């Protein structure tokens, strides 16, 4: 089973480019352009790594990290 990576970035071009690269390396990628749908994803399925934009509209990357930190998901900020 491929490792599942969450990407959250409001700049769609960046998020899609990162997703394209990771998918080419056989990772399973979940891409979101805001935090709220990403939170739902994290609550519903296991994630192995989160790549988060710091400056998201509404809920920012740091707030999103606070939510997912109890799940012990490693986080990379972009």
Structure characterization notes:
- This protein is of the alpha/beta class and 78 residues long.
- The chain contains three helices and four strands; from the N terminus they run βαβαβαβ.
- The chain has helices at 12-24, 35-44, 61-68; strands at 4-8, 28-32, 49-52, 75-77.
- The protein has a four-stranded parallel beta sheet, with helices on both faces.
- α3 (61-68) links the parallel β3 (49-52) and β4 (75-77).
- The longest helix is centred in the first third of the chain and has 13 residues, at 12-24.
- The protein is globular, with a radius of gyration of 11 Å.
- 24% of the residues are buried.
- The model has no long low-confidence stretch (mean pLDDT 95).
For this entry, give a set of tags.
78 residues, alpha/beta
Précis, in short:
This protein is of the alpha/beta class and 78 residues long.
Structural class based on helices, strands and sheet pairing? alpha/beta
Poorly predicted ranges: none
User: In DSSP terms, counting alpha (H) and pi (I) runs of 4 or more, how many helices?
Assistant: 3
Q: What is the gyration radius calculated from CA atoms?
A: 11 Å
Spatial sequence of strands, sheet with the most strands: 2-1-3-4
Give the biggest beta sheet.
4 strands, parallel
* Portion of residues within helices: 25-40%
Report the end-to-end length measured between terminal Cα atoms: 26 Å
Number of strands: 4
**SSE string, helices as H and strands as E:** EHEHEHE
Mean pLDDT value: 95
What would you call the shape? globular
How much strand content do the residues show?
15-25%
